[in-house]
Amino acid sequence: MLGELSERDRAVLAMETAWPRHSGAKEEAVRAQLGMSAARYYQLLGRLVDSEAALEYDPMLIGRLRRIRDARALRRSARTPGFVG
């Protein structure tokens, strides 16, 4: 995602800053404040994590989210046995 962040993108990042933990209350806040489902919110957030524009806009948040994502991927790959053809 190149270029400027949309107002919705900035709102998603602001929500993630205000509600860093996943919870039912966060999902209710997403629906009430952003007018979208939690699934859509996390879909958009996932795209923003890979966005250079988002990294420029909020480097601390995006850096933290990238570290969390990378740590989860590493844990998943450590649990998944490799396949030998």
How is this structure best described in words?
- It is a single chain.
- With 85 residues, this protein is mainly α.
- The chain has one domain.
- It contains 5 helices and no strands.
- It has helices at 7-18, 24-34, 38-49, 52-57, 59-79.
- Helix 1 crosses helix 3 (38-49).
- It is globular, with a radius of gyration of 15 Å.
- The model has no long low-confidence stretch (mean pLDDT 90).
SSE string, helices as H and strands as E: HHHHH
Classify the beta-strand content into a percent band. Answer: under 5%
Tally the helices: 5
What's the number of structural domains? 1
Overall outline = globular
- State Rg: 15 Å
Total strands: the figure is 0
Give descriptors for this structure.
85 residues; 73% helix; mainly alpha; single chain; 5 helices
TL;DR?
The chain is mainly α and 85 residues long.
Draw up the topology in text.
Elements: H1 7-18, H2 24-34, H3 38-49, H4 52-57, H5 59-79
Helix pairs in contact: 1-3
